UniProtKB/TrEMBL annotation:
Low complexity bias: start-end ranges: 67-77
Region feature Disordered, mapped onto this chain: 45-77
Pfam family, one: DUF3886
Protein name: Sulfurtransferase
Alphabetized InterPro entries for the sequence: DUF3886
Comp. bias intervals (Basic and acidic residues): 45-63
């Protein structure tokens, strides 16, 4: 019976149980820092894309603006 109980206990043991508690906390902190860094990069990328769209819109020619317009000169005849 003792062998069966020991096997059950071994199955429920996780990696964090074998590691030092300080090391586990350090790894969790690193994971949190990486998540924050990834989120900041995503925000910066979105900001950069928005700025590029704004710059392209600003540099459009009259022909491009006219083609994108939904107005029709026939309606104003």
């Amino acid at each position: 019976m003792k062998k069966q109980t020991k096997k059950k206990d071994d199955q429920n043991v996780s990696v964090s149980d074998h590691l030092n508690k300080a090391l586990v906390e350090q790894l969790k902190a690193v994971k949190k820092d990486l998540a924050i860094e990834q989120e900041e990069k995503a925000v910066e990328l979105e900001k950069k894309k928005r700025e590029e769209r704004k710059q392209r819109e600003k540099n459009k020619s009259f022909e491009e603006l006219l083609n994108e317009s939904s107005l029709s000169w026939k309606e104003f005849k």
